[in-house]
Amino acid sequence: MNWSDPAVQAAIIQAIAAIFVGIAAAVIGKELVKRKTLQQKLLLAQKDIAFLLAVEEAHCDLHIHTTGESFKIRIREIARKRNYTWSGKFTPGRANDSPTMQRARLACAQA
């Protein structure tokens, strides 16, 4: 094989280019799968938060019905004393309005 032959050099360059393109496609594909997985987890977490807030609301309604007081603030204070924090940023209304959540829903719907 004559390495100085332009046809051989062109074939080698094309093979190397194809390898680089394949590697780049694999890396990009892996990142897209990671992003998709994170978006799905984000949506699931939002649904879990909405569920837990509904549980809290039902629990407070039950307390109001039986005792006349919801105990919502008191229970949240107990949780804070146990080192749990609540940012309040991911209530269903706020989460639905966030650009991040809108992009995540759109990306998951297109799958």
What does this structure look like?
This protein has 111 residues and is mainly α. It has one domain (6-109). The protein is 80% helix and 0% strand. It has helices at 6-67, 72-81, 92-97, 99-109. The protein starts with 5 loop residues before the first helix and ends with a helix.
Gist of the model:
This protein has about 110 residues and is mostly helical. The protein has helices at about 5-65, 70-80, 90-95, 100-110. The protein is rod-shaped and about 95 Å long.
Main beta-sheet strand count, sense and barrel state: none
How many DSSP-defined strands?
Answer: 0
Q: Using only CA atoms, what is the Rg?
A: 27 Å
Quote the beta fraction. under 5%
SSE class: mainly alpha
The end-to-end span amounts to 49 Å
Number of domains: 1
The best one-word shape is: rod-shaped
H/E series:
HHHH
Counting H and I runs of at least 4 residues, what is the number of helices? 4
Helix content: over 70%
What's the rounded overall pLDDT mean? 87
Topology:
Elements: H1 6-67, H2 72-81, H3 92-97, H4 99-109
Keywords:
single chain, 111 residues, mainly alpha, 4 helices, rod-shaped
